[in-house]
Amino acid sequence: MTPVPNSFPSPLPPLPVGIHLPGGHGLDPSVPPNTTQGFHLNHLMLRIRDPSESLHFYIDLMGLRTVFAMNTGPCSIYYLGHPQTDAERADPKLYAQNTVSNDVLTTTKGLIELVHIHGTEKLSKEEYKLHNGNVAPFLGFGHVGFTVPDVPIALERLRESGVKVLKDVGVAERENVPITEWEMEKFGVGIGELAEGYRHVLSQIGFVEDPNGYWIELVPQNMK
Amino acid sequence: MTPVPNSFPSPLPPLPVGIHLPGGHGLDPSVPPNTTQGFHLNHLMLRIRDPSESLHFYIDLMGLRTVFAMNTGPCSIYYLGHPQTDAERADPKLYAQNTVSNDVLTTTKGLIELVHIHGTEKLSKEEYKLHNGNVAPFLGFGHVGFTVPDVPIALERLRESGVKVLKDVGVAERENVPITEWEMEKFGVGIGELAEGYRHVLSQIGFVEDPNGYWIELVPQNMK
What we know:
By secondary structure, chain A is of the alpha/beta class. Chain A folds into two domains: 40-121, Roll (2,3-Dihydroxybiphenyl 1,2-Dioxygenase, domain 1), CATH 3.10.180.10; 140-224, 2,3-Dihydroxybiphenyl 1,2-Dioxygenase, domain 1. In chain A, 23% of the residues lie in helices and 24% in strands. A four-stranded mixed β-sheet of chain A has the order 2-5-4-3. In chain A, strands 6-9-8-7 form a four-stranded mixed β-sheet, covered by helices on one side. The first copy, chain A, is globular and about 50 Å long. At the A-B interface, strand 1, strand 2, helix 1, strand 3 and strand 4 of A face strand 1, strand 2, helix 1, strand 3 and strand 4 of B. Strand 6 (141-148) of chain A pairs antiparallel with strand 2 of chain B, so a sheet runs across the interface. Chains A, B: This is Lactoylglutathione lyase.
């Protein structure tokens, strides 16, 4: 076997500014036979401190339900996903039954895996501080993006349940994009104004904070 | 509106060890009307340093294709997903066309958003170091989980293209679970042996590293 060639030259030419570009650079190759057919982006994994808090957030507030959980010994893992039908929404056990078989589970997308290391729930948030990836210089992971039928209604329900709203709709400024002062000052990167085409999108998007400080994005399904 | 009650008491009773539990604690409520119906877990967002490297990894090697990209001014964002049909795999532009409309995009799951702050590609990996969430004490995000038809074949193809394999199949030890020495020593949490039922699963799973050091999990679709 030989290394797979890189379809993307370095440096890549900059994309035209402020335009929604289907297919991006237009450099993506067709998928070669016998390579990645059948691959699924199944889940992302986040550490949590206290399962009572995080299950409340993702299940009661964000609408996910438990597919399965496993106590591995030193930690417990929870796989959550969204029920797909009225019957599954009425009966979370039915959703779990319908989804937990290996064939269904491994071809399902949009799951989140929460990992709770036993004992961290007894530590305070200050003692066992998880890092959300958005605070310089410890940048990396950005957010989990949910789409919702109506962002203002979703934000209102979350706010009423004590969730911190990081960005409301109607706002689209430089401080709402994931570029820190630290990066601009230290490296001189990420400079310049936001394109109008992007501000239009950003103004319709909300952000809230989960119980461990991870950023949760709410994207409208009725984007204008 | 009143706060949504928490369905999960604190502390939650420990789950039985080493058993795959559909529905987890069995405490999930049915979904109340007019709350989270229609919510989708659409994507996760990761910062990247150099789009040439990261698009090569996620597109050429992991089989994703570009739905759309946008240059916002100071940064560019890329939304990637897996083509669903032979026709889409043969023609990535068709996949983009089929997926990019607002209705389809916002009800699609299993997407990844990569954010490139312009200029970081000129910095070295040491200068602009992104944090993968798995190195103490900067713990948080864990990994992106892909399911694949055959983990050893997938690992071999990645290895031949220079990808670092973090965990091969056939291995299932304490150091392969996301609990650091730091947590055990500092807090006394996450102690104890791995349950046999979990080691059986873990031994079939692979982990590789993406170009920015993020952990990528490969879960077999033919789990035994």
